[in-house]
């Protein structure tokens, strides 16, 4: 991905901020409108990287060029999303994936693992993506914990997005 070797090593010495969750989405046959069939609305993950293990039901969609594209489940596959931390570290060279979950017929079940930095780690564009290639940083430095607190307070995307730290 063009990132320096071992770049996450300093961000992930302590696994206590990583998170694995199991999610179940039940269909709602009474709602036909698209906006009422959203199991989990449009957002970007606050993590470095997110690994998603889907069942065969599907429902995960990714926003591309203004259109929602289904991430159809493929048996034995794992969906990997870039999160906000990688977007900042790469100075926007890699973008956090905007995605959502829509309700589909059947009971959807997924496991999601969020690889996160520890809360006391500073997040800022790496020199490999700024000073070393004569590009200005696009984000100011912030503590990861502060970013999580911002997202928890606002509960929306945006304003609770990494753009809050944009320069």
TrEMBL record:
Pfam families: 2OG-FeII_Oxy. Residues 16-117 form the Fe2OG dioxygenase domain. InterPro entries: IPNS-like_FE2OG_OXY, IPNS-like_sf, Iron_ascorbate_oxido_reductase, Oxoglu/Fe-dep_dioxygenase_dom. PANTHER family: 2-OXOGLUTARATE (2OG) AND FE(II)-DEPENDENT OXYGENASE SUPERFAMILY PROTEIN-RELATED (PTHR47990). This is Fe2OG dioxygenase domain-containing protein. It comes from Digitaria exilis. The lineage of its organism: Eukaryota, Viridiplantae, Streptophyta, Embryophyta, Tracheophyta.
